[in-house]
């Protein structure tokens, strides 16, 4: 099975900072990569699919890039409401493995 | 507004069984793929199982294969997860989620999630 590895596992940044989270697949998944945001006490929310397509209603400060095995989620200007854990997930086939998550906090 | 409401969780002894249910509304349930995802409180997400729009294709994580069975009743807008031979490591909050794209598939983007139902396996 394909493994998904995220880094870092956690980060602390200041409001307005640019934040980057990476996700690596153990095999080529083309662009079948989604990113989810899970705020404390809430269910996950789909942010990005197709590696770079923003889900409707998601703020434009979020962006995704990559293909094959290496992917990136970028928050261009971190806001207090972005405090959450972010997960990548492959969806080209089952099993739909998630990354282990990246917890984003405000410094 | 799309709604997914899970039920059926509870406390069960190791080796026991449980059936989870999920009722969907405000979307075309009968042409949507559906999945179950679980999360140990405070830990990460684990995909468990998926089913395509008509129930003809089902897929499972290795950790539950042979013990869990996913099914659906489109007439009742309902998704099920039959869990047998439960283990302590199955303890988690179980969410049902609607597959967005590819449409109708047993796997894909998870565009809507339910709040979950808690399963505790303990003696």
Structure write-up:
The complex is a heterodimer of chains A (107) and B (123). Chain A is 0% helix and 49% strand. With 107 residues, chain A is mainly β. Chain A has strands at residues 4-7, 10-13, 19-25, 33-38, 45-49, 53-54, 62-67, 70-75, 84-90, 102-106. In chain B, 44% of the residues are buried. Chain B has strands at residues 3-7, 10-12, 18-25, 34-39, 45-51, 58-60, 68-73, 78-83, 92-99, 110-113, 117-121. The model of chain B has no long low-confidence stretch (mean pLDDT 96). The radius of gyration of chain B is 13 Å and the shape is globular. In chain B, a hairpin with a 5-residue loop joins strand 4 and strand 5 (45-51). At the A-B interface, strand 4 and strand 5 of A face strand 5 and strand 10 of B.
Key descriptive features of the protein:
heterodimer; A: 107 residues; mainly beta; six-stranded mixed sheet; four-stranded antiparallel sheet; B: 123 residues; seven-stranded mixed sheet; 11 strands
What's the SSE blueprint?
The complex is a heterodimer of chains A (107) and B (123).
Chain A: E1 4-7, E2 10-13, E3 19-25, E4 33-38, E5 45-49, E6 53-54, E7 62-67, E8 70-75, E9 84-90, E10 102-106
Parallel strand pairs in A: 2-10
Antiparallel strand pairs in A: 1-3, 3-8, 4-5, 4-9, 5-6, 7-8, 9-10
Chain B: E1 3-7, E2 10-12, E3 18-25, E4 34-39, E5 45-51, E6 58-60, E7 68-73, E8 78-83, E9 92-99, E10 110-113, E11 117-121
Q: How many helices of chain B?
A: 0
The end-to-end distance of chain A, rounded to whole angstroms, is 37 Å
Q: Uncertain segments of chain A of ≥5 residues (pLDDT<50)? A: none
Can you tell me the overall shape of chain A?
globular
Mean pLDDT of chain B, to the nearest integer, reads: 96
Rg of chain A (C-alpha, Å): 13 Å
Got a strand count of chain B? 11
Helix content of chain A: under 10%
Biggest sheet strand order of chain A reads 2-10-9-4-5-6
The overall pLDDT of chain A, averaged over residues, is 97
Our measurement of the CA-to-CA distance between the termini of chain B, rounded to an integer number of angstroms, reads: 40 Å
Largest interface: A-B, 22 and 23 residues
Radius of gyration of chain B, in Å, reads 13 Å
How many beta-strand elements of chain A? 10
